[in-house]
Write a structure and sequence with these properties.
two-stranded antiparallel sheet; alpha+beta; 3 helices; Double Stranded RNA Binding Domain; single chain; 79 residues
């Protein structure tokens, strides 16, 4: 990367690194106007507005918008 001293391998990740350095956020939420560097982050954010919670705990049926939240929650059942 020409902006930091990191060696980016594979080269396809260089675009990602440059977006982080330039703080360009080409993806914008049509509801709240918050911007994101990556379309996947916008898609994840959009769940906030739709109140969609596609991830549910099989033990207690609690629902989450993000998979990582479900994974973190699952530890309450293993204590």
């Amino acid at each position: 990367c020409g902006m930091c001293e990191r060696t980016i391998v594979p080269k396809c990740h260089l675009k990602t690194t440059i977006l982080i350095h330039t703080e360009k956020n080409p993806y914008s939420c049509s509801i709240c106007k918050k911007t994101f560097s990556f379309k996947s982050h916008l898609n994840r954010h959009s769940l906030i507005h739709t109140e969609e919670k596609p991830y549910s705990c099989s033990l207690c049926k609690k629902c989450f918008t993000q998979r990582n939240d479900l994974i973190r929650h699952s530890t309450v059942h293993t204590r």
